[in-house]
Every structure is written in C-alpha cells, then in structure tokens.
Specification:
3 domains
C-alpha cells in the first residue's frame, strides 16, 4: 500500500488524532449544536400584527419615489389566534422565499438563514428557501440554489457568509430592477429577504416598490459590523439599537487590542495605533474603548464639537465669525494626541494604546471639505466629458495640474479655488494621492484604503520633535531609580538633583522631570559647568549620561488595522441569538403579508427577556444624500450620539484611562468570543450603558 495512504488510514483510525485533524474543530461542532433561544412570540403556533404608534419625518422625495410603501407603519409581531382557521391556513401555506447577502460579511449571517429556514419549515415543511449566490448579482443574473437542512445545519452559529457568498453589487438602475423582477417571477418567489446595510436596505425599499404589483414581498434585515444601521422614530424611541455582527466584530478587535495592551505595558517602548472599522460612524471604536480601556480613543463625532477658542476670540474681536474655528483640523488633532503622549511620558510611560475609527478623516474640517469637493469634481468630469477622471489623468502630477487649471480659471462659483489649491499642496504627497484615489461604486471616498494612522502619526511625530526641542517632551525618571543609580556611581543624588531636575526638591514627586534646557550632552555639560560640577576639559560622568539617556524619549509607533479579521469572526452568543431571531422575524412578517419592512428586534439594549420582534417601514427611513456628486434617495446612516450615556461614560473616563500619572494602566481584558459559559456578556457594553435607567438618572443629575 502507498505509504502516504497507509499513514492517512492509520491516523483516521485513531480517535484522538482524527478529532484534532478534522475539518471541523470541537468548538465548531459544539457551535453547530447550539440552539439559540426564540423570542416568546415565535414559540406560539402562529403570529399576527399589531400596528405601533410611531411617527417618522417623511422626505417628500421618498413619498414621490416609493408611493406604495410610504404609508407603511411599524408592525409588532404578537401571538395569533389559532381559532381563526383562515389566518392559520394563510400563515401555514407553502412558500418559496429567496434570501441574499449584500455587502461585507457580518458574524451571524448564517443564523439569519437558519432562523428563516426553521420558521418556514415549522409553518409548512414543504416551504422552500432559495439562496441567491454572490450577493445581489445572483438576483440580477438568476444565480440561485435551494437550501437544504443539511446545508443550513452545517453553518449554524458559524461566522462568514460562506453558505451563499456575498457581493458588492447594487440594484440601482431601472435595468437592474427589471432583471431582478424577472428573476423573482421566473423562480416563482413569494418573497425576497435582503440581508445588508443601509445601501442594501435602500435596495430592498425600491425592490418592494417594484414588485408590489406582482405580489412579491421584500423584507430587509439590518446587517453591518459598523453598527450604523440604527433606527429611532421622530420622538427618539429606539426601534433598532444595533445591527447584527457589530458585537462580534467589536469583541474580535477588542481581543486583539487587549493583547497589544499587555505587550505594550511589558516592553514599554511602543505606542500601538489601532485603526478599526467604521467609515462613517465610530460605534466600533466606542465599543472597543469600553471593552479594553485603551489609553486614548478618538471618536469622530466628538471632533465635530471641537472649537478653536483662540481663533474664535481673535475674529470676534474684529466683529467677525470664523467658521473655520468650529471643528478640528488635522494639525490640531495631531497636537491633541501629542499632548497625551507627553503627559504619559512625564511619568515614565513611553508607551500607550490609541484607537481610531477608519473614517476619522471624514470628521476633520479641511479633509472633509477636500473630499466633498473632489467627489464632485470627479463625478462632474465624467458627466461633462463622458470619460473617467482617473483614466484621463492616470498620474498624481496630471491630477494636480488639472486641479490647478480649475483654480486658475477663477470662475465666480468655481468649486476649486486658489486657496483650496494652496492648502491641498501643503498636504504630504502620499496623502494627496490617497485623497485623489478612485471612489467606490457609490461615489464615496474609500476611507479603509487610506493609511489614516500613518497620516496622523506622522504629524504627531513631527510635533513631538518640536516639543522636544523646546524641552517640553521628556521622560519622567523614578526618583528611587535616580538616587540608586547615582549612589552606585559614587555621586550624591542630593547634590546633583537640583541641577538636573525641575522638581527634585518637591518630595511629593515620585517621578522627576529633567530641566527643559537639558536636551543633549552639550546642554547637560553646560549646566554642570555653570553649577561648578565640572570644567570645559572634563568628560561628563558616565552615570549622568545614563540618566540623560533615560530622560530622552524615543517615540516609536506600531500601526495596526483591524477590519476583515473581525467581520469574519465567529458570532458571539448575542449575535447568534439576535440573527436567528431576525430570520424568524423576517419569515413572520412575510407570513403576515407585509412588504417594504425591515425585520428588527426592539429592546435589544434591555436584554433577551425584553426583546420584541417588529417590522420597521423602510420608505420613511429614506432621505436625500449626496452620492457621486448628485442627490440620491438612500437610507440614513446612524452616527454616535455624543449625548448618549455610553459616550458620556467614555468621555468621563478618558482621564482615568489615559493614566497620565504614577499609577498602573487601567487596561481591561475582554473575554474571547464564545457562546457558552456564565461569564459571557449578553449584549454589547454600549447597549448595556444606553439601556441603563439608573445611569440615565445619574447623568441627568450630573
């Protein structure tokens, strides 16, 4: 027998070896066997609808483009009456339901399918679930497969969108709408479930409008790790607190960041800069901060509220208002970060953890202006010239020349002027190239491709060098270390202390700071000569050189981007349960004959016992937004609310977590993702804080 085959067969006969080499780990097998609990209403034989009293601002354009679904209301799923035979028969009839993933993977997606499949089979074992392959392209091109129990069971509680894959296509033209309609009719679908983010649910709204005359229902499901699909009514009531996948991704990133906290506080020589997903909103950064207690976390939405008081006062003195004083600039932001580095260094902490969302640049004044203007210029070029901007100007130099020509035209309403051109050319070349890169399919600037952390930390490094030259950036030295070192070198600590350090005579300072003037060997020698401790011809004592070297900071950074690893992680127990119940919600909305709704679970922030499955009308969530240089009707993204309890808590703890003092850092070690065990958190910390009534009362008193 062939030796390789013999070895393989021998190994497979050994239970222990077979288990460790199996394609499915023991953890994956255990996950497959986990049965997420169902909301109470789904344990009833049938459900029915109760219309909720919720109000939304209706965009006139939404009313115009989505007339047949604009009057939809929020629907609560409640127990149905089993003595109503007609209702039971309608609920239990055989159905063919299509489902499609759209956009990037999000942990829990497989459980949406499992929930839909199980609910459909429970109502009628002859019902069929059709999975469209590779995202909405599968709908447009009629690429689909019937999903079987064996297939669904294989992927239960596992991460990824592997079962039917996903894609970035959008149904955003009359032709694509027509092709999608043909597919749904050809497959004789009763309904289509679209699992995706804001753009995908926008597609769901337009498809619902398109298919309503054919009697084909369309239901959206909120999916995005960014957490920016949230819904409140006009009165501020939370209907959808977060999208599925957010908790898992944030926990995955937090676990990795926590490892860096341990590493950084071990060798004490790096600032780890952790960029996390979040192009438009900083929800993940906020949750990661709560999970890890990183030394510093930048929340983009908070930067909007920054005010340059000096600039404001200067202009007000002349009776003018300078709107550039509102909102942070890139250079101001670098100074904010630099000051945090300096303050920690004061206590000998030559290390730290900084978390930034990938879309931080979108919240920075001059960068936001450039992005808006460049988006419009790029879109307009194609509209006017009929050719692609990047194809016409392939090199950075050619692009810059074109912008300069626009500026020199000096037209009264020119979008790009001489001041823009001058400011743009002050930006580092690699960053200018980034700002001019190709936009995504929606005309948006691709923030995740920009080395945001490199841009920011380059400016931080530059400013820290300036502060060092001024003598304002030094590493504090432990008093005990200084005194021990000088004694071992045969020198008197008390004699040299006042010469070397600003605060040596203050006995309350356990960390002492070298005088501003002493930033080099030459400056140290001058100070010692002036104090009559040596002459021009003497060499500096080696022990004093050792102390000098200890006081001079060496700022080093390590840059990390957490993106694909988190969105491909296995779901937390929260996301397993949430996604599974979303799948059940989608089916029950279909079984109750609604369309143009988004499946959601109300009261996520209050814990599982309070969860309420609902349908949220999609059309009222649409508003006009700039896309590719023109206004389009889309679902609005939800950004971090700086008045929310979660944000206020993080803001109040910033100083403690920065730990710019002699105490140890406050790092928190989040648990690894799992779905069993009594210590597993039952929801994101953000939701726990936002749902806490006692916290809200305390904040109101503060």
């Amino acid at each position: 027998m062939d030796q390789t085959r013999y070895l393989f067969e021998h190994l497979m006969n050994d239970d222990e070896i077979r288990n460790v080499l199996d394609d499915q780990s023991l953890e994956a097998k255990e996950r497959n066997n986990f049965h997420p609990p169902l909301c109470e209403v789904f344990r009833k034989p049938i459900t029915q609808l109760r219309t909720g009293e919720h109000h939304f601002f209706i965009d006139p354009e939404a009313k115009k483009q989505l007339p047949d679904i604009i009057d939809n209301k929020v629907q609560y799923l409640i127990e149905g009456q089993t003595d109503d035979l007609q209702a039971v028969e309608h609920f239990s009839r055989k159905r063919r339901i299509g489902i499609v993933f759209s956009g990037g993977p999000s942990p829990g997606g497989h459980n949406v399918i499992a929930g839909l499949f199980d609910a459909a089979q429970k109502a009628n074992p002859d019902s069929q679930i059709i999975g469209f392959l590779m995202g909405l392209d599968g709908v447009i091109e009629n690429e689909a497969v019937e999903l079987t129990k064996e297939t669904v069971d294989h992927y239960r509680n596992l991460g990824g969108f592997t079962m039917i894959k996903t894609g970035r296509a959008k149904i955003n033209s009359p032709e694509k709408l027509s092709l999608s309609r043909q597919t749904c009719k050809a497959l004789e679908l009763d309904a289509l479930v679209i699992v995706g983010g804001d753009d995908s649910n926008t597609n769901a709204a337009f498809l619902a409008q398109e298919l309503i005359k054919d009697g084909i229902q369309v239901i959206g499901v909120p999916k995005t790790i960014d957490g920016d699909v949230q819904v409140r009514d006009e009165d501020g009531n939370v209907l959808c607190a977060i999208s599925f996948g957010f908790h898992s991704a944030a926990r995955s990133y937090a676990q990795q960041i926590s490892h860096l906290c341990s590493d950084g506080s071990s060798d004490v020589k790096y600032w780890h800069v952790c960029k996390v997903m979040g192009r438009v909103a900083s929800h993940i950064a906020l949750e990661a901060a709560l999970q890890t207690h990183a030394n510093m976390t930048l929340i983009g939405e908070d930067l909007i509220n920054y005010v340059d008081k000096k600039l404001l006062a200067k202009n007000q003195h002349h009776g003018e208002i300078n709107f550039d004083a509102y909102g942070v600039t890139l250079r101001q932001l670098s100074k904010i970060v630099s000051q945090a580095v300096v303050r920690r260094a004061r206590f000998g902490k030559n290390n730290g953890i900084l978390i930034i969302p990938e879309g931080i640049l979108e919240f920075i004044n001059e960068i936001q202006k450039f992005i808006i203007k460049l988006n419009t210029i790029i879109a307009d070029y194609k509209h006017v010239h009929g050719s692609d901007f990047h194809g016409a100007f392939p090199t950075l130099g050619e692009k810059l020349d074109y912008l300069k020509q626009l500026a020199h035209k000096n037209a009264p309403h020119s979008i790009w002027n001489m001041r823009d051109d001058a400011m743009f050319n002050e930006i580092p070349e690699f960053f200018r190239e980034d700002l001019l890169m190709e936009r995504d399919t929606h005309g948006n600037f691709p923030f995740s491709l920009v080395e945001t952390e490199k841009v920011l930390m380059g400016l931080v490094d530059e400013y820290l060098k300036e502060l060092f030259e001024r003598g304002s950036y030094k590493l504090g030295i432990a008093r005990a270390y200084y005194e021990k070192t000088l004694k071992h070198g045969g020198l008197s600590p008390q004699e040299y202390g006042p010469i070397l350090f600003e605060d040596y005579n203050d006995a309350t300072h356990n960390f002492i700071l070298m005088k501003k003037i002493i930033i080099s060997e030459a400056r140290l020698k001058t100070s010692l000569i002036q104090a009559d401790k040596m002459t021009e011809n003497d060499d500096i004592h080696p022990v004093l050189l050792k102390i000098l070297k200890k006081a001079i900071p060496d700022f080093k950074t390590r840059l990390h981007f957490y993106g694909y690893d988190g969105r491909g992680s296995n779901p937390t127990r929260f996301d397993c349960m949430y996604a599974y119940n979303l799948g059940n919600t989608a089916f029950n909305l279909i079984a109750n004959s609604v369309t143009g709704q988004m499946a959601a679970i109300k009261n996520l922030e209050k814990g599982f016992a309070h969860w309420e499955p609902i349908g949220i009308p999609l059309a009222p969530l649409m508003h006009l937004e700039e896309r590719k240089g023109k206004l389009s009707l889309v679902m609005e993204k939800s950004i971090v609310d700086t008045q929310s309890p979660a944000f206020k808590v993080v803001k109040s703890l910033r100083e403690r977590w920065l730990a710019a003092n002699a105490s140890i850092d406050c790092y928190r070690k989040p648990a690894p993702i799992r779905f069993t065990g009594d210590t597993e958190e039952d929801r994101p910390i953000t939701l726990i804080l936002n749902g806490s009534e006692s916290l809200k009362k305390n904040l109101a008193k503060a």
